[in-house]
UniProtKB/TrEMBL annotation:
Protein name in the entry: YnbE-like lipoprotein
Domain of life (superkingdom): Bacteria
Record-linked InterPro entries: YnbE (IPR025985)
Organism this protein belongs to: Sphingobium herbicidovorans (strain ATCC 700291 / DSM 11019 / CCUG 56400 / KCTC 2939 / LMG 18315 / NBRC 16415 / MH) (Sphingomonas herbicidovorans)
Amino acid sequence: MKREAILAAALAGLALTGCIQVKAPDKPIEINLNVKVQQEVVVRLQRDAQDLIQNNPELFPQ
């Protein structure tokens, strides 16, 4: 019984190998992360400026 199952699985695998085709894309894959990077920079600069103002109130009178 176990031998028959292995044989059936092997035959099914051989039957499916002809159906798979791998082809490289014509155009290169482009991943655009500019928006995320810009948001991190803005938030980081905003936090740094807020810390600077809070730590040095004499430099920024209100």
